[in-house]
Structure formats: structure tokens, C-alpha cells
Amino acid sequence: MGDRLAGKVALVTGAASGIGAACAARFAEEGAVVAGLDLAAPPDGSPTTGWWTVDVRDEAAIERAVAEIVDQLGRIDVLVNAAGVLSIGAADTMEREEWDRVLGVNLTGTWLVSKHVVRRMAERHAGSIVNLASIEGLIGFSGQTAYNVSKGGVVLLTRNMATDFGPAGVRVNCLCPGLIDTPLTAILRDPAFARVRDRFVEWHLLGRAGQPEEVAAAALFLASDDASFVHGTALTVDGGLTAGRRFLNPGEEL
């Protein structure tokens, strides 16, 4: 499709499905050599050059994987932290184990992979990190306490890393998607959740859910030299959800 990442080596976590898989595919189309990392096996037709089956909560395994990727591919120019899990539960009903699982994957996992990649980028005085947060890291949603907290943490982790590593030539940004049709959100297609999904979609001013490829396009921008002066930002990819609310839907009258 293009050459915006020609000659670059990209590590994508959560690369087996959803946004991570879309990023891996788009980055490869744009000339990157892509290393995939996920607990799951690579999907059929994966464009990745190498695959590491790793739990992002396991620091020792992450450290080994990053070292192997650098040894095999030479360096890591781009990191996309897309590994994530969803959760339902309010603060008074959620079990501690579920809280730990969600925070462990979404927030701690993002930090651990970044920890072992960013130090290598800083040594080379070059690199771009794109973290996957969410609009739920910017505003609260009922019944999704752990997910909201984890993604809010990713937003601030992004900004703290931008503060620490910008002077070392490493750009750090995050994406805040709205409702994206992925395996992670497939539960909302269950008839039992029809009203919830319909309302969620209605909040998006474009009137639809997004696709993983649309988020991957935004990740490509942040990863590429086109975003050379974009640093420490939380870019919404949400069909206008956080822009505001309508009083009336199209076609409705007072």
C-alpha cells in the first residue's frame, strides 16, 4: 500500500486479533518488518516476521522476548501496545481477581513491554510508542470500573513516558478508540445486549461503530514520521463520541 514504515521494525502486542492484528497488517503493508506478540497463536495469513507467545504480565518472559526480537531483527523502531481485555463490574461487585486480571493486562502489561523496549529506543535516540487506551480512559462508563481505571492509567502512563523520554528522542502517544467491532466487543452483538449496543452506537456522532482498520490507520500516523512533532497526546478515534451530544437525532422534531 505504501512505504511509510519502510525499513522499520515494529513490535505489536495483542497481534492475534482485533486492533493489534489490524495494526500488524497495516504496518507490514507500509513496509515494516513486524514482530507479533500475544498469548494466542498467530492467525492464518499473519504478516508477522516472527511470533512470540507471551503473557504481557510476565516480566521475565517480556524481557526475553524483547531481547530475542532485537537479536533477530536488529532493533525495535515502533512499539504498539494493543494487548487488552474487557471487563464488566462496578466497584462494589467486582472480585479482586478480576480487578487484578484487567489492570494486569491493560495497564501493567503496557508498562512492562514499554519498560523493556523504551530503554533500547532511548539508547538509539529514536523510536515511537503507540499505546492503546480508550475513550473509557477519558470519561467514565457505568459498570466498567476496572476497564475504565486501566485505560485511564494508560493515558497517564503515556504522558509520563512522554515527559521522561521525549528528550531521548522517543515519541510516546496513545489512541483512545470508541466502540470498535472486534472479538473483544463481540459480546455486545448478543441479543441480550442489543439495547446497550444501540445506545452506545447512537452516542457516536457518525452513527456507527468503528473498524479495527480505522484505528490501525491512526496508529500508523502516530508511528510514522508524519507525526514527527506529535508527542504525549491521547488521540480519540471515536466517531465523535467525546465531541458532544445531540438534543435530537436526525429526522426528529421538537
What keywords describe this structure?
alpha/beta; Rossmann fold; seven-stranded parallel sheet
Describe the structure.
This protein is an alpha/beta fold and 254 residues long. It has one domain (9-180, 211-239): 3-Layer(aba) Sandwich (Rossmann fold). Helix content is 39%, strand content 15%. The protein contains 6 helices and 7 strands; from the N terminus they run βαββαβαβαβααβ. The chain has helices at 18-29, 59-73, 96-124, 145-165, 194-203, 212-223; strands spanning 9-13, 33-38, 50-53, 78-81, 127-132, 170-177, 234-237. The protein has a 7-stranded parallel sheet with strand order 3-2-1-4-5-6-7, sandwiched between helices. Helix 4 links the parallel strand 5 and strand 6 (170-177). Helix 1 packs across helix 6 (212-223), helix 2 runs parallel beside helix 3 and helix 3 packs parallel to helix 4 (145-165).
Write a brief structural summary.
With 254 residues, the protein is α/β, with parallel strands linked by helices. It has a single domain (9-180, 211-239), classed as Rossmann fold (3-Layer(aba) Sandwich), CATH 3.40.50.
The N- and C-terminal alpha carbons lie at a distance of: 47 Å
The averaged pLDDT comes out at 94
Helix/strand-derived category reads alpha/beta
Proportion of residues in extended strands: 5-15%
Number of domains: 1
The largest β sheet comes out as: 7 strands, parallel
Instruction: Tell me which CATH architecture applies here.
Output: 3-Layer(aba) Sandwich
Poorly predicted ranges: none
What's the CATH topology name?
Rossmann fold
Principal-axis shape equals: globular
